[in-house]
Amino acid sequence: MPPRGAGGEGEPLPAQRHGAMETGQVALGRTSPGLPDSGLWPCRRPLAAGPEGETRGVEKPPFSLLSREGESMLRRIGLVGAFALLGGAGMGRAEDTYPILVYPAPRAQEAIQVDGRLVERAWEMAPLVSGFTFYDRPERAPVQTAFRVLFDEERLYIGVVCDESLADRLPPRPLPRDDASLFHRESVEIFLDPLHDHTHYFQFAVDAAGSLYDAEGYNAVWNSQAQVATQQEKDRWTLEFALPWRDVGLKPERGRVLGLNLCRNRWLEGRQWTNWSQTAANFHDPVRFGHLVLEPTREQWSRLGEEFRRPDRRGPLFIFEREGISGQTYRALLQRALDEAERALAELRSLRERQEPAVAAELAQRLEAMEQELGPIRQRLRAPEALDGHTFIQMEQAVHQLLHRMQDLLWEARLAALLAQI
């Protein structure tokens, strides 16, 4: 998103919204005491595209926030609807119920070569997080972004994967340092609040050609010693970013919390501004950055609840792990989505038997095509390997897009069956 003063049609002003809420205990995984499994799960599907190709999704909190009846409702409407009901999509509300995202970063166990390839084994130890939404509404983007974070005593490392079906149109040549036209190219922005005071933050932007823009807040005169490198591939582009801790005046102490957000500017199919942690008016919204925790111990987790909710945030907490979110595995979440699709398929098969021969034949063909679409997802769930966040988002999104088509087909089949009885 272009910085203030960089131009751009309809450019929003910075905004910081917050409200008030009690703090909560925070811990990792199912072994955490006092954190019952809520049964919540990520959003069903992207909503319809906006006038400029925009669409927007988020994840699951570790607490059981609702009753059993409420959880049943969530399974029907997904988290997009849930956040709207909770106020997460209500820009005009005074209280802040936006989701609170937490990323525990492991220490790098080997040297990282900043070449944009992300091939070191150390990267595999960091959670791969995806599920980017559009900046002003909690709707998952159809073209996704994923990232990992590592650190060592000298640097913070961030590796980013940007899915891109139009990779042949990516910019081939880099721009000069701090050239604001970078924001009108395919680019990723990294926001870092090192003191976690929700006021003083740094912005770094890198385009697909490896151009770098950095600023202290809106002050682009400030420059870092960050290293960046990108790679362009046939269906994606990747970014590797390394920032010396001394540039932001920080020592990487274990359990330290920093504000972090990753955002993406995509222009190849209209203007698409997406972010990891949901923001309001634009990306410069440090109150709503996610939280980066450096190699926290189990004891430190239990003391971090209040820190995550500063300054008075009400939203549900999502703690990202290598194989899931807040104790629920990506495999289980994807299986839940697949089960719903299987139930819809079963109902369609039943309705087919009550149709006229011509309608039944057409319905059979459409059901066969849907079966084939579900095949790779069934196969992946049968495989023993764990799912990462990026693969989960891609497959879960495909299931729910298919489920949406099934629901439309169900209405058609039910109507045809009803008319046949008249």
Describe this structure in a few short sentences.
Strands 1, 2, 5, 6, 7, 10, 11, 12 and 13 form a nine-stranded mixed sheet that branches. A four-stranded antiparallel sheet has the order 3-4-9-8, with no helix packed on it.
Which features characterize this protein?
2 domains; alpha+beta; elongated; 6 helices; 422 residues; single chain; Immunoglobulin-like; 9-stranded mixed sheet; 4-stranded antiparallel sheet
Written account of the structure:
The structure is a single chain. By secondary structure, the chain is α+β, with helices and mostly antiparallel strands. The chain folds into two domains: 68-326, Immunoglobulin-like, CATH 2.60.40.1190; 330-420. The chain has six helices and 15 strands. The chain has helices at 68-86, 298-301, 305-309, 330-352, 357-382, 389-420, and strands at 100-105, 133-134, 145-151, 155-163, 187-193, 202-207, 212-216, 227-232, 236-244, 257-266, 272-275, 290-294, 317-319, 324-325, 328-329. Strands 1, 2, 5, 6, 7, 10, 11, 12 and 13 form a nine-stranded mixed beta sheet that branches. The protein has a four-stranded antiparallel beta sheet with strand order 3-4-9-8, with no helix packed on it. The protein has a two-stranded antiparallel sheet with strand order 14-15. Strand 10 and strand 11 form a beta hairpin. The longest helix has 32 residues, at 389-420. The radius of gyration is 22 Å and the shape is elongated. Residues 7-93 have low confidence and may be disordered.
